[in-house]
Amino acid sequence: MVYRPPWWLPEGHSQTIMAARWAEKPSVHYHRVRWNTPDGDFIDLDFTESLEQAAKHDTLWVLFHGLEGCSRSHYSLAVMNQARMAGALGVVVHFRGCSGENNRMPRAYHSGDSEEMDWILRRLRSQFSSVEFMHVTGVSLGGNVLLKWLGEREKLAREVVSSAVSVSAPVDLLAGAVSLAKGFNLVYTRMFLSTLIPKSIEKVKRFPELGNVEDIANCKDFFDFDNRVTAPWHGFRDAEHYYAVSSAKPLLKHIAVPTLMIHAKNDPFMSGQHLPTTHEVSPQVNCLFTEHGGHVGFANGRSLRLGLDWLPKQCDAFFAKHSAKHTGASRRG
After folding, report:
1. Chain-centroid distance, C-alpha 222
2. Which residues are within 8 A (CB) of 266 and not within 5 positions of it... i.e. 6 or more apart?
3. Residues with Cβ < 8 Å from 10, sequence gap 6 or more?
4. Beta carbons within 8 Å of 321's beta carbon, 6+ residues apart
5. Marked catalytic residue, from 57, 94, 110, 295
6. Strand partners of residue 89
7. Nearest-CA neighbor of 97 among 181, 206, 211, 176?
8. What confidence tens digit (pLDDT) does each residue in 241-274 have?
9. pLDDT tens digits for range 277-330
10. Are 135 and 125 in contact (CB under 8 A)?
């Protein structure tokens, strides 16, 4: 389905901001579950139903949010509401420190943390062993991590997930950092840093070896933040090393799970010129690169009332298609 923005949202910034701030968000009641991680930390997962009710479902939709996102982000609510309408169990996985409580360990989360995603997805697959289909959506930062995981695991990922959708994934992290360091995009950068910096300072006060409070407080863009926080806290030499080894783009050609990449060419975080060509993705990757949509925008509506159902409907159609394929194969077997 072609995405067409409302006439009064003419470009990428308005399509990004108005979807997040103005569009009508569905109401979703979550059931929170906390998991302890192998290294002594925790993550929180918000399910659309209680675990007692979850056993009746044969399909699970998993969503990994974007930078500083959560289960209440506009896209999370839209996709989880669609999961309910599709008769699936839904869950939003919070990256460490994103569920409303800072995490315990001297680390945070980042765009290349595919090892953490592997542990989460495999635990979900094990815990919900009665689920026949597990479909995963990754949004923005979560989308890059998902695509990286798929590319690294190749055919092994088929043991875990049935299909995947990435939304506005900045698969070239250096290009994204450059874009967010100039012009109007600094508005987005300041918004992200307004929460990232306080959380990081709180962590440095608990773990002084992580850095200097004043240095972190003075971060002006992502090059600063990733050099002073993301890279040293997670084993990278510097920001450029982090961007190079965490970007999903070089791994797209290795993906073996049916995957849909949704990305607007006017995305202010990473424009269309940095999107992969058909020669840079595997045959399993379907590219839905729209002219409009902004960054995780894709709001729809013909009046001043904006809806958010275009994106979740793309997820639903793609997941249904690959559930049907799997069902047909199992029946033939």
Report:
1. 18
2. 11, 12, 15, 272, 291, 292, 293, 294
3. none
4. 163
5. 295
6. 60
7. 206
8. 999 999 999 999 999 999 999 999 999 999 999 9
9. 999 999 999 999 999 999 999 999 877 789 999 999 999 999 999 997 554 433
10. no
pLDDT for 329: 39
Taking only the tens place, the pLDDT of each residue in 78-87 is 999 999 999 9
Whole-angstrom Cα distance, residue 149 to residue 146? 5
Bridge partners of 72, per DSSP, are none
The residues, ordered by sequence, that sit 6+ positions from 269 with a Cβ below 8 Å of its Cβ are 140, 168, 170, 176, 179, 180, 185, 188, 295
140 is catalytic: yes
What's the helix, strand, coil split of the chain in %, to 5? 45, 15, 40
Token reading at 200: 């990081």
**The two structure tokens encoding residue 60:** 């699970």
Spot the catalytic one: 226, 267, 309, 316: 267
* Options 99, 114, 140, 247, the catalytic residue: 140
Is-catalytic flag, 113?
no
Catalytic, 330? Answer no
